[in-house]
Design goal:
single chain, alpha+beta, Immunoglobulin-like, four-stranded antiparallel β-sheet, four-stranded mixed β-sheet, 4 helices
Length: about 170
Amino acid sequence: MKKLILSLTALVLSTAMFAQKKADDVAKFATETIDQGKLKQNNPEEVKFIVTNISKEPLIIEQANPTCGCTIGDYTKTPIAPGSTGYVSAKFNAANLGHFTKTLTVKFAGADDIKNIVITGDVLAAEEYDKWKAENPSAAVKAAPAAATTPAPVKVKTSAVKVKTKPAVKS
């Protein structure tokens, strides 16, 4: 019986020691999908995904890669402090007409999985886009997507350590 309990305890402890964090445990995207709406052909527009470090350690984006050559991506290269934000940006080339859905994969240091973020939209020929813009003047003026705005700073609680000092002894 003692051997069984000892074996189970060892198994539980070793499993806990080697458990990896998931991307959702260390980072939170303001949105995981950005719809770019209507784009004019060959007129790419950049979008920015805002990511917040929700862990207690600095967050490092190891990689942020598009899944095809028609999208260019960039990301925060420096460590993101706990409670702070960074970004992953993407620019779709808008060369082909029609609806598009493009995925970027994001890998965080210390997380064993990969997070997918998505941009979507519709590419219109120049004439069709101009006609649509004339018919929808308020829709043609694109407001910055919610993910592109900087979220309010997150307050992080810190504990103060009180140190007692003794007065110097005169000799």
